[in-house]
Amino acid sequence: MGHGAEQLLDANLELLQRMIEQQRAKVLKIARQINPRITNDDIMNPFDWPEVSNNPQFSFEDGLLAGLISADAALRAQARDAGMFPAPFKDTPP
């Protein structure tokens, strides 16, 4: 792949990371509205907090976060399979 394709891939991965960070912050904010003691680590396993995991708004936003994370993983896997390695993987052999 050409240099332009790698730049586009890097830009898309950076965009996805910003979207993931923004969505993660939104999920944490919603969780803390339900239970102020929730931490970043707690939202990774919300089933320990039934009042949070059973909340429809939290579940919806958490599902969006999961989708963004899945899209990031799929894009990275496709880039790896195509021999393109974005910044975190440039030194990783195929």
SSE layout and pairing:
Blueprint: H1 3-34, H2 40-44, H3 50-53, H4 56-81
Helix pairs in contact: 1-4
Structural Rg: 17 Å
Total beta strand runs = 0
What is the global morphology?
Answer: elongated
Nearest-integer average pLDDT? 88
Share in helix: over 70%
Distance between the termini: 15 Å
How is the main sheet built? none
What portion of residues belong to β-strands? under 5%
Poorly predicted segments? none
Quaternary state, please? single chain
Q: Give me the number of helical elements.
A: 4
Structural class: mainly alpha
What string, H for helix and E for strand, traces the elements in order?
HHHH
Report on this structure.
The chain has four helices and no strands. It has helices at 3-34, 40-44, 50-53, 56-81. The protein is elongated and about 50 Å long. The mean pLDDT is 88. 71% of the residues lie in helices and 0% in strands. With 94 residues, it is mostly helical.
Name the descriptors.
71% helix
Summarize the structure.
By secondary structure, the protein is mainly alpha-helical.
